[in-house]
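Q: What would this chain look like folded?
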Amino acid sequence: MDRLQFEKKLWSEGYQYVVGLDEVGRGCLAGPVVAAGVIFEPGTVIDKIRDSKTIREKERDELAEIIKEKALAWTIQEGSIEEIEKLNILWASLETMQKCVDNLDPAPEYLLVDGNRYTDSLIPYTCLVKGDDRSMSIAAASILAKTYRDNLMRELHQKFPEYGWNSNVGYPTAAHKKALKEYGYTKHHRHSFNLGTIIERELK
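A: My prediction, written as structure tokens:
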């Protein structure tokens, strides 16, 4: 698979600053949604970059450092619990990716966005379903976002060990749902997800 096919086409069309955008944590019960944006200089190739979900943790951490070193620009942004509650998780995810665009220097000229939709943008963009395994730039963003968010949730685990965030990083595992039923919500849980209904339904 040529994970540079989209970048090569855009580079050949004169777009020098092509950013890959991805987010993680959309399906979690706790913690922020995290997005990352990565711009590589035209011609950059890092063969091992692929969908972060298919990479073991140790290699993912190593790749994150390589990406930060070799990228022309990169950024990681959070969408807070408050933003998720106010906007809903979809729009909070899109807004967090837009934060990445707003915080990159040089400013992106073209956006490659993981998924099937994006917010209104004056910058031209293409949405790529499963883009984190089709575009090196998007895959790089997915790696940065996942390593950052996983580390964040493990830090929060030290204060809230009951929920097992050191292993589930906020995702709705059976152990996480059981802990919610036993210990209740924390300030890091997403109340708009109607967790009570989810817990009762799935633990019956």
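The radius of gyration is 18 Å.
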